[in-house]
Design goal:
Elements: H1 2-5, H2 9-40, H3 45-82, H4 85-112, H5 114-122, H6 127-142, H7 144-159, H8 163-186, H9 191-216, H10 233-262, H11 268-285, H12 287-305, H13 309-345, H14 349-382, H15 386-411, H16 417-439
Helix pairs in contact: 2-8, 2-11, 2-12, 3-4, 3-6, 3-7, 3-10, 3-11, 3-12, 4-7, 5-6, 6-9, 7-8, 7-9, 8-9, 10-15, 11-13, 11-14, 12-13, 12-14, 13-14, 14-16, 15-16
Length: 449
């Protein structure tokens, strides 16, 4: 309560100017996840299972772009604090180049070896699941360069203090996908293939639009060119110091999620579907928390760049408090709507019951653990303390999520809810480690990027 009373008008202005557009961005992303499941549902349970299994692979690729974006957000925000718009824009250009190159390095091999990749992911799934997965995977892989441009661009804009402008790209991405996807379903009855085509087209549109936004620039960032093949070692060296640990952390984390998602295959198509539908509900509860997680990094990085270390710590605490309070509200809303939502997304009683079990647990735990397990490390990343958070995230993934998930689902066979119990065990372990780190001063004594 003392922290609430200490929040000034300046705090509210700084935090809300960053959070408002990011909140809308995160809300549209979460709603799109639900909309995609709803659109794919028209192709049957096998299509739903295929999409939800493959989404973990797509997220694995996207985590690389998130890592590049996180590194560029920190560097751009710290450069903005020094008042050099041209250098700030140059950092953004280098980040876009890294994103595009990374996307091609991932997309091309996966396209060539698509069949083995599917066998690795789907294991003993039904033949219909393989059929739909092959379609969905192809379109996603082709769209990876556009995703890279979009995600890195929005991260650069947030670092430049232009979160509202980054929101425009998100609205174009999700809006075009919704219009094209629903048109493919309702007008042409194109099923999963139509949804996949809509996904590729919307990402291409968004990638081009994001580059146009960067070209326009902001008061704190001027780009002489948005695309380049020239590698500037003076920018790339400190940027990679931040990007590499975050990318490694994100890729291993998402890889661990891929492993645990495979545990759901043993429980049949119904188990895969229930787990996948819950994965679309969970982000809705986490919209406020994801907003805080995305917003805290540029705010802390900017204060750290100004040398205001105590203020950086105080801002981080405010974001954690906002996460707890707002996530409690969204969890209560989800708890009230849970029954009708489960019946809407599935007509099978077994799937509905599993959804209700998993999401009831989630509504209790997310408000308690999300702030300290996710917002705190994002805040410390803003100060350049990326290696510790990466180490803890990787350790917790293997020690808690994979090991506990294997025990509960493969050995004890308690059902797909075991995957979620393991996930929250991971969150609890992270919370303890990051709270201890945050209370110290080492994270505030990192070399500026």
């Amino acid at each position: 309560m003392r922290l609430l009373g200490s929040i000034t008008r300046e705090d509210r202005q700084e935090i809300l100017s960053m959070m408002k557009p990011v909140f809308v961005e995160q809300l549209t992303i979460a709603l799109m996840g639900s909309l995609v499941s709803m659109m794919v549902k028209s192709s049957g349970l096998a299509a739903v299972a295929a999409v939800n299994l493959l989404n973990s692979l797509i997220y694995l690729a996207q985590t690389t772009f998130v890592g590049i974006g996180s590194g560029s957000t920190v560097m751009v925000a710290q450069s903005r604090a020094q008042g050099d718009p041209v250098h700030t824009g140059h950092i953004g250009t280098q980040a876009i180049m890294i994103g595009v190159i990374s996307s091609l390095l991932m997309a091309v091999p996966c396209l060539v070896f698509r069949r083995p990749v599917l066998r690795l992911l789907l294991g003993g799934a039904e033949e219909a699941v393989y059929y739909y997965a092959n379609i969905y995977l192809w379109f996603n892989l082709v769209s990876l360069p556009f995703i890279a441009v979009y995600q890195v661009s929005t991260a650069v804009l947030r670092g430049a203090g232009a979160a509202r402008i980054s929101l425009y790209a998100t609205l174009v991405n999700n809006g075009s996908y919704a219009v094209l996807g629903l048109g493919a379903i309702w007008l042409f009855d194109a099923g999963l293939t139509g949804v996949s085509v809509a996904l590729l087209l919307s990402r291409a549109i968004t990638g081009v639009y994001a580059l146009l936004l960067l070209k326009r620039g902001t008061p704190h960032m001027l780009m002489q060119r948005v695309l380049t093949l020239h590698m500037d070692k003076t920018v790339l060296r400190p940027m990679m110091y931040i990007i590499v640990p975050i990318c490694l952390q994100n890729m291993l984390f998402q890889g661990g999620k891929l492993i645990t998602q495979r545990f759901s295959v043993a429980f049949g198509t119904a188990g895969i579907a229930a787990n996948g539908i819950c994965n679309t509900f969970e982000p809705l509860i986490e919209v406020p928390g994801a907003t805080c997680q995305q917003s805290v990094t540029p705010v802390v990085a900017f204060r750290y760049g100004l040398g205001q270390k105590d203020e950086a710590r105080r801002k981080a605490k405010i974001f954690v408090l906002i996460d707890v309070l707002s996530s409690t509200v969204t969890a209560l809303i989800m708890a009230v709507l849970l029954g009708p939502l489960a019946r809407f997304y599935s007509t099978e009683a077994a799937v509905q019951n599993e959804i209700i079990r998993i999401m009831t647990m989630s509504c209790v735990i997310i408000p308690v653990l999300h702030g300290v397990s996710w917002v705190l490390p994002a805040a410390m990343n803003g100060a350049g303390d990326v290696r510790f958070s990466s180490f803890i995230t990787i350790l917790s993934m293997f020690l808690m999520r994979i090991s506990v998930g294997y025990l509960l689902t493969v050995v004890l066979r308690i059902g797909v809810i075991g995957i979620w119990i393991a996930m929250f065990s991971d969150w609890a372990f992270r919370s303890v480690c990051f709270t201890i780190r945050f209370k110290g001063t080492k994270w505030l004594n990192q070399k500026q990027a």
